[in-house]
Amino acid sequence: MTKKIVTLAGDGIGPEIMAAGLDVLAAVAPKINFDYEIEAKNFGGAAIDAENHPLPESTLNAAKNADAILLAAIGGPKYNDAAVRPEQGLLALRKELGLFANIRPVQIFDALKHLSPLKPEIIEGVDFVVVRELTGGIYFGEHTLNARDARDVNDYSYEEIERIIKISFEIARGRGKKVTSVDKQNVLATSKLWRIVAEDVAKSYPDVTLEHALVDSLAMKMITNPSDFDVIVTENLFGDILSDESSVLPGTLGVMPSASHAANGPSLYEPIHGSAPDIAGLGIANPISMILSVAMMLRESFDETAGAQFIENAVNKTLLDGVLTKDLGGTASLSEMTAAIISNL
Ligand code: NAD
Ligand code: IPM
Ligand code: MN
């Protein structure tokens, strides 16, 4: 059966890296007999330009009816004063689709080890996953901005915490069997509840070790002892910050993919980074974050493990061959790197 993939290219480097991801998908599909069709929709700033809203109804409907969604990136200085910003469109899309579980893997391809800003002995054996709660917390609480005061409400229910903690235990069960639950329990009520729920869920997973960490010192340990971690689970805002921090391990945001899952309905795959306005249109963005998001889609939405593996191997081979974009210290353009990955498939 033909799979319907909705693509949201968005803004900045979004259209460039989306094209690269789709070129790789087109090259791998015949090798695995994967039959698909693409429906490209306006989203983010591009949708503000075309349809006056970052998440037009037809985009949301297409996303709801897709088998999977690929998103590149949205946002940029041009839209900072928009009535409804691109970022609000992204949050609305996540909420509407119920995409509460955001999976952000952190692994370092062999070829990247010597490029990391950290010492090789620190990088050795790094392989963890940040599980970020994506539809709750301070992102979705009440926001009030007055001239002389402002407030943002951080809300979490027991059920919202429970379902994301469960996901992290399920993932840990299939890998290193350790969950690090990250909070600010020494200050925040939401974090106190988070810790109680984590303990409750852990009772059903006697084969998995649970440890708790405070977010401030965890931010330090993620860099000094990154190989200690297997699955890190945390609330929306902490997960946003910690996952960008984790990109320091491979050395660039340009290689970081993610998957977002709902209880029901299509999953969404996107790089963790933004629209990189500083390099948009220059043809030098690293397409690997998008290409690895395509690989995650093949594996997690379509059970096409071989296809995902082909892509990941080709990326590793390309990096080993020394084809590197500027963020990795090289001179390859986005199209040169994409062509090299395709030829290594
Ligand atoms: P950013 O992630 O866009 O960029 C941070 C830095 O990383 C920049 O120097 C950029 O050049 C570099 N970078 C990011 N992706 C790269 C790639 N693929 N190849 C090479 N270098 C890359 O963060 P920012 O500049 O703080 O935000 C820019 C805009 O993106 C903002 O409007 C923000 O809200 C938005 N944003 C969107 C998403 C998303 O679409 N999911 C995520 C994060 C930020
Ligand atoms: C991300 C981004 C978004 C977030 C922004 C653009 C709203 O930083 O996907 O990590 O904070 O979730
Ligand atoms: Mn982010």
From TrEMBL:
Q: Name one GO biological process term.
A: L-leucine biosynthetic process
Catalytic reactions of this protein = (2R,3S)-3-isopropylmalate + NAD(+) = 4-methyl-2-oxopentanoate + CO2 + NADH
Question: InterPro entries from the xrefs?
Answer: IsoCit/isopropylmalate_DH_CS, IsoPropMal-DH-like_dom, Isopropylmalate_DH
Source domain of life: Bacteria
Annotated substrate binding sites: 94, 104, 132, 216
Q: Name one Pfam family in it.
A: Iso_dh
Compartment annotation: Cytoplasm
Q: Which cofactor does it need?
A: Mn(2+); Mg(2+)
Q: How is the cofactor bound?
A: Binds 1 Mg(2+) or Mn(2+) ion per subunit.
Which pathway does it operate in? Amino-acid biosynthesis; L-leucine biosynthesis; L-leucine from 3-methyl-2-oxobutanoate: step 3/4
Q: Which residues form the Isopropylmalate dehydrogenase-like domain?
A: 4-341
Q: Where does Mg(2+) bind?
A: 216, 240, 244
**GO cellular component assignments:** cytosol
The positions annotated as site (Important for catalysis) read 139, 184
Q: Which UniProt keywords apply?
A: Amino-acid biosynthesis, Branched-chain amino acid biosynthesis, Cytoplasm, Leucine biosynthesis, Magnesium, Manganese, Metal-binding, NAD, Oxidoreductase
An example of a GO molecular function for this protein is: 3-isopropylmalate dehydrogenase activity
Listed under subunit, the entry gives:
Homodimer.
Query: What family is it from?
Result: Belongs to the isocitrate and isopropylmalate dehydrogenases family. LeuB type 1 subfamily.
Q: Provide the function of this protein.
A: Catalyzes the oxidation of 3-carboxy-2-hydroxy-4-methylpentanoate (3-isopropylmalate) to 3-carboxy-4-methyl-2-oxopentanoate. The product decarboxylates to 4-methyl-2 oxopentanoate.
Write down what this protein is called.
3-isopropylmalate dehydrogenase
Q: Which organism is it from?
A: Pseudolactococcus insecticola
User: What gene is it encoded by?
Assistant: leuB
